[in-house]
Amino acid sequence: MATDGRTHFWKRSAKTPGSIQPVYGAQHPPLNYRIHKTGPKTNASSARSKKASSFHEFARSTSDAWDIGDDEDEDLVGMLAAPSNLKPGTLMVASSQYAQHRNKLNDKPEHMQPVEDSQFNGRVVKSSSEVQICRPSEDSLMRNPLHKQQSLPLRPIIPLVARISDQNASGVPPMTVREKMRLEKFRQLLASPNTELEELRKHSWSGIPKEVRPITWRLLSGYLPANMERREIVLKRKRDEYFGFIEQYYKSRSEEQHQDTYRQIHIDIPRTNPLIPLFQQPLVQEIFERILFIWAIRHPASGYVQGINDLVTPFFVVFLSEFVEEDVENFDFTQLPEIVQRNIEADSFWCMSKLLDGIQDNYTFAQPGIQTKVKALEELVSRIDEQVHNHFLKYEVEYLQFAFRWMNNLLMRELPLRCTIRLWDTYKAEAEGFSHFHLYVCAAFLVKWRKEILEAEDFQALLMLLQNLPTIHWGNEEVGLLLAEAYRLKYVFADAPNHYRR
């Protein structure tokens, strides 16, 4: 943290209190990536002589999003390129493997039924979880004309949900007996007149099967009632309430007092998962703009802060996967019936709101929740791995310089979206997953890269490593190991404050 007249780096060029410029990570590669170890090494004495300005000099010398001003969003379309930090052929191989496993798809699962006796390009389906929730009403509100957002050019595809080694994605080898038993257990819990939420959390900790993830997330978010008889009524009321907010507030986006908020949202939306075509579709961007603007209007204590836009995407993808059999990242959202589009939008809004209710101090003025969590991470790492901690001290790397966005974006910039979805299965199963358990996940995530950290021998190499960790090929197995280590750390340190003391 900056003290004694030193500038808080995350407020630099920020026009909204507590907001930051977006920082590109694992799924958002830097615009002009520079290889770590080019140029001479910086010795410790020269680094100390530049302590007050070293981070700002580093930020100015790289093409990170700290340097992207609000007025430069028009340039982003032309500047954004495929990530050059990947090894040659990596994207091509990944896309090829993904195409191969899609060609081997078996017949549709028995629980999938067509929407209104029709399919859209053979990809849109009706999921059993939606049938369990409610029957959609035929009444729908007319959408107001919305400003169309220019979409970015098509980019090489990195699968966001499915990967050949992922267990719960479509197109993978047939489920094992154990996986079938887990899925059946989930279905039994969800079909009971009153779902036992504690039992559901216990089974969700090690991952939720894709087939039942949408309804399970709604339940564990506190959005859907455990009583099955009440679900249809509650969902209809909450969805109607959301679109009532749209009618009441969304037209005010052109008013002077909301101009800054709407403008920042409008700038950030194209930066959300820029490598995934789904999120560059005008209709999807309009949905995100509405969700974020309504949330900001209803939460004036924090308003919109950059980074909140990322938190919508896992909910949107999970609820969309309820109706799309495969290839979610390339799906044309306009093919869905309007009632389905509306339900996905409303459910994403309410579940994101429930999540933010538990971590809102991360986004109020000066973001005190994040500052507290970064300080706790520093203390925890100093006890877990003193060598890594001392390495940061030697080269004067402050935890706030890399861990701020780990807390602000819940590691979404560091992991592929498919991994975030799996991670959130466990966060939802934990009592304070997004606020408390996330700290131990960040500590385990940092220490995992200790070898690479200790090999980096200057300030710039460390920052470039920590902002571009090589997780692009991670899947369920890697996330499972990370969560297991985080649980171990929590077990050892959470209820033992003396472990923090030297």
Give a written overview of the molecule.
This protein has 502 residues and is mostly helical. It has 2 domains: 9-87 and 367-500, Ypt/Rab-GAP domain of gyp1p, domain 3 (Cyclin A, domain 1, Orthogonal Bundle), CATH 1.10.472.80; 109-360, Helicase, Ruva Protein, domain 3 (Orthogonal Bundle), CATH 1.10.8.1310. Helices cover 49% and strands 0% of the residues.
Quick description:
InterPro entries: Rab-GAP-TBC_dom, Rab-GAP_TBC_sf. The chain is mainly alpha-helical. It has 21 helices and no strands.
Query: Which word captures the global form?
Result: globular
Main β sheet profile: none
The chain-level mean pLDDT equals 76
| CATH topology annotation of the largest domain | Helicase, Ruva Protein, domain 3
Distance between the termini: 20 Å
Top-tier CATH class of the largest domain = Mainly Alpha
| Cα gyration radius (Å) | 23 Å
Oligomeric assembly:
single chain
| Uncertain spans | 1-24, 28-53, 63-95, 104-131, 134-158, 161-171
List the helices and strands in order. Answer: HHHHHHHHHHHHHHHHHHHHH
Count of distinct structural domains: 2
Pfam families: RabGAP-TBC
Protein name: TBC1 domain family member 22B
Function: May act as a GTPase-activating protein for Rab family protein(s).
Keywords: GTPase activation, Phosphoprotein
